[in-house]
Specification:
By secondary structure, the chain is α/β, with parallel strands linked by helices. It has helices spanning 2-7, 17-29, 34-54, 56-59, 259-284, 286-296, 300-322, 328-343, 346-362, 368-382, 388-417, and strands spanning 60-70, 75-76, 79-89, 92-93, 97-106, 114-123, 131-140, 143-144, 148-157, 162-163, 167-176, 179-180, 184-193, 196-197, 201-210, 215-216, 220-224, 229-230, 235-236, 240-242.
């Protein structure tokens, strides 16, 4: 939805004619050969992601752990990749920042751009570049030199925010109190604007409310199920227009499941959850999760074969166990374990892939937390490649499930040989 808002921005800001013409040309070409051009651009994006993942060999500092931080007064004159259960950046970073964790706090200045993902993400320091964040709860503050792209369940753009360019956000509840130099795109169930928008404001969702301090320098376009609420004192310089509801044409028979479109979106949506699960697993049970990651690179095709057997025969085996009264608790536990391995099969594969990529270029080992983060980025990028993304997604599930099973079996055998 954010991407659609960004694509349609040029159509709704006629004052920027040059950008409008460029967008029109791209839209006009899309039905034909431009699909091939999009595939090429997607492939180039994936290459860039992989180059970014390998950049530490040249100009990146890595930090990872259970609780990792950049202390106040500390200056990192480089790019920073940082991952952990708790991540805090209070010092200064002159380059870009890639951060991931259950709780991410960035209060210090950043000379480049910020990309962060986590359950609770707060970026309140000044950022010279752009900010791209995703989390369950996202809080933004400070001065942003370029753009903000954010997604989450609850998003707060604080009064201290000063965005030089555009702001695009998507979530359930959005509150915007800051100042945006150009355009704002919002997609949410509930949106509240009390800040200033230099250009146009577009909203898609259920309900939009403009507070008394709201200022919109351009047009206000909204497509919402509830009437627009404009408080006394709010100022809209352009026109206010309600967009027509999306047409609902006759239902067409689907020409397939279009997995090539669904898989990338599912990968992006699940990224924070999978990463947090992996971090928690590596912290609480490193023996199992590290053994699973190590098993991915050893006898990979055996992992795939074992994964197929578990996916096909697992539910039947669980059912057979559960039909007996004695086996009901065991069956429930087995079913939970089967579902968990299936849903989080990316964890061992991403950890193994990320550690391989970094060690390939640095010649040294890397923290499993950082390996998990880089591996998930690589898998998310590969998911956007047509056909190849589907194949890699399926292999990831089979590899991960098989690796979990082999690791668990190895631990059980070792415990029997060497009982505590």
């Amino acid at each position: 939805m954010i991407a659609r808002l960004a694509t349609e921005r040029g159509k709704e800001t006629p004052q920027r004619g040059e950008l409008n013409s460029g967008d029109s040309r791209r839209t006009a070409r899309w039905p034909g050969a431009a699909k091939r051009e999009a595939s090429v651009r997607t492939s180039a994006l994936i290459v860039c992601l992989l180059i970014t993942a390998s950049a530490p060999a040249y100009a990146t500092e890595f930090r990872s752990g259970d609780s990792v931080s950049v202390e106040p007064g500390e200056v990192i004159d480089d790019d920073l990749f940082i991952a952990g259960k708790s991540v805090t950046i209070s010092g200064a970073v002159t380059g870009d920042v890639l951060a991931a964790g259950q709780a991410v706090r960035i209060t210090g200045p950043v000379g480049g751009s910020v990309m962060a993902v986590g359950q609770d993400v707060r970026v309140t320091g000044d950022v010279e570049g752009s900010v791209r964040v995703a989390g369950q709860t996202v809080t933004l503050g400070g001065r942003i030199g370029r753009n903000i792209l954010a997604a989450g369940e609850t998003l707060l753009v604080a009064e201290t925010v000063r965005v030089q360019r555009d702001l695009y956000v998507a979530g359930e509840i959005l509150d915007m109190d800051g100042v945006v130099g150009r355009n704002v795109g919002m997609a949410a169930s509930t949106g509240t604007v009390r800040g200033q928008v230099g250009g146009s404001l577009r909203f898609e969702g259920d309900a939009l409310m403009l507070g008394p301090s709201a200022r919109v320098g351009g047009n206000l376009l909204h497509r919402s199920s509830q009437p627009l609420e404009i408080a006394s004192g709010a100022v809209i310089a352009g026109e206010t227009r309600q967009l027509p509801p999306k047409p609902r044409g006759p239902k067409r028979q689907p020409r397939g499941l279009k997995v090539h479109r669904i898989l990338p979106l599912l990968t992006l949506i699940s990224f924070p959850t999978v990463f947090v699960f992996g971090v928690v697993g590596l912290t609480l049970n490193p023996r199992l999760f590290l053994a699973s990651a190590n098993a991915v690179g050893r006898r990979s095709w055996w992992n795939v074969f074992l994964g197929i057997l578990i996916l096909l025969l697992g539910p039947a085996a669980v059912f057979v166990v559960m039909i007996t009264v004695v086996g009901l608790p065991i069956g429930l536990l087995a079913f939970i374990a089967w579902m968990t391995a299936l849903l989080f099969s990316q964890v061992p594969v991403a950890t193994s892939l990320g550690r391989f990529v970094v060690s390939r270029f640095t010649g040294s080992g890397v923290s499993p937390y950082l390996g998990l983060f880089i591996g998930l980025i690589a898998l998310a990028g590969l998911a956007w490649v047509p056909i190849i993304g589907i194949i890699i997604g399926g292999l990831t599930v089979l590899l991960g499930v098989g690796a979990y099973a082999r690791a668990a079996k190895g631990i059980i055998v070792e415990m029997r040989r060497h009982p505590a």
